[in-house]
UniProtKB/TrEMBL annotation:
Residues in coiled coil: none
Superkingdom classification of source: Bacteria
Sequence similarity: Belongs to the bacterial solute-binding protein 2 family.
Signal peptide feature range: 1-21
Species this chain originates from: Streptomyces glomeratus
InterPro entries cross-referenced by the UniProt entry: Bact_Solute-Bind_Prot2, Peripla_BP_I, SBP_2_dom
Residue ranges of domain Periplasmic binding protein in the record: 53-296
Alphabetized Gene3D superfamilies for the sequence: 3.40.50.2300
PROSITE patterns (alphabetical): PROKAR_LIPOPROTEIN
Subcellular compartments: Cell envelope
Name of the featured protein: Sugar ABC transporter substrate-binding protein
Keywords annotated in UniProt: Signal
């Protein structure tokens, strides 16, 4: 068993190294472009050691939300003279193994998401035992302190859900379908529970396989066809909002579609009235502040939040706000 773990660790470390050296193909290239731009403008990086920080998230492939988080982290890394490594895996066990590989590589700091905290607890504890500071980001605000992280940066998902319930009450909505696209993600459950806490009408949860958009669309379409009393669909991620719009159209429904998270596509659909509102948790800020927090801790033993999560949302974005944010959504930072 020990031999198996040794070889597994070597393999994972190699995979992590490739993905991160290879942050080059996507993130690494963006970071290098940012460094060149900074140099061209006469801005030098800070005069501190060249620390290495690893960010490991629960993102699946092609999720634009995580592109924005990664972009914010990379920009902060350029400013802070950080060698930034990014990897991700939607499978919680695989994500935990990526954290283990980062520990084995003796990185100087780790940023991690806790969408499925039970699966991540041992890996975070191993980082702490190795003396590597950890910042949690996006999901896991309730578990972050218990797991020994410096701080958590993101939105409180229950509070965000409650903000959605309040907004739906203002809009006079009566029956909501809350679409959960990742089973076992505690943050998603908290969002829908938060909606139920404050919404005066009925909230039904619909569980879908978020890795298969045609299945998501057909499941939504079937529900909207069978229950005409549903007047609102709330999706928990920007990529699912457009799918919900298509399902609504095919089902002949007049339900309003609202969503968590913001990107250029969502902003455009807010502007033209296709969507009702979006809940922005500022993913760019989450990535940026996570890197900054680790740098501040390494440089000056600073910690943000005073033992509490540092909130980056929620902010309700409607048609008017979307127009004002268009320049930022187009460049991929909101």
């Amino acid at each position: 068993m020990a031999r198996f773990r040794t070889w597994a660790t070597i393999a994972l470390a190699g995979a992590l190294g490739l993905s991160l050296a290879g942050c080059s193909s996507h993130g690494g290239k963006r970071a290098e472009d940012a460094r060149k731009a900074a140099a061209a403008q006469g801005r030098a990086a800070v005069d501190t050691p060249r620390w290495t920080f690893a960010m490991i998230t629960h993102s699946g492939d092609g999720d634009t939300f995580w592109d924005i988080v990664q972009s914010g982290a990379e920009q902060a890394a350029v400013k802070d003279n950080i060698n930034f490594l990014y990897s991700h895996d939607a499978n919680a066990q695989q994500q935990a193994q990526l954290v283990d590989a980062a520990v084995d590589q003796k990185v100087d700091g780790i940023i991690v998401t806790l969408a499925k905290p039970d699966a991540m607890k041992a890996a975070v504890a191993r980082a702490e035992k190795a003396g590597i500071p950890v910042v949690t980001v996006n999901s896991g605000s309730a578990e972050s302190k218990e797991f020994g992280a410096l701080t958590h940066i993101g939105q409180d998902e229950t509070i965000a859900g409650e903000a959605v319930g309040d907004e739906l009450n203002k809009r006079g909505r009566k029956k909501v379908l809350c679409v959960l696209h990742e089973q076992g993600n505690v943050g998603h459950e908290q969002r829908c529970s938060g909606v139920k806490n404050t919404f005066h009408g009925t909230v039904d949860n619909l569980y879908v396989n978020g890795t298969n958009m045609p299945d998501v669309q057909s499941a939504l379409e079937a529900r909207l066809q069978s229950d005409k009393s549903v007047d609102t669909v709330v999706t928990l991620g920007a990529p699912y909002a457009d799918t919900a719009v298509k399902a609504r159209s095919d089902a002949g429904s007049r339900a309003e579609v609202d969503t968590f998270d913001l990107n250029a596509k969502v902003a455009g659909e807010l502007k033209d009235g296709t969507l009702g509102f979006a809940v922005d948790q500022q993913p760019y800020l989450q990535g940026y502040e996570a890197v900054d927090q680790l740098w501040l801790y390494k440089y000056n033993a600073n910690a943000l939040g005073g033992g509490r999560p540092v909130l980056t949302g929620p902010q309700i974005i409607t048609r008017d706000q979307a127009a004002a944010l268009e320049q930022y959504t187009k460049r991929g930072t909101r």
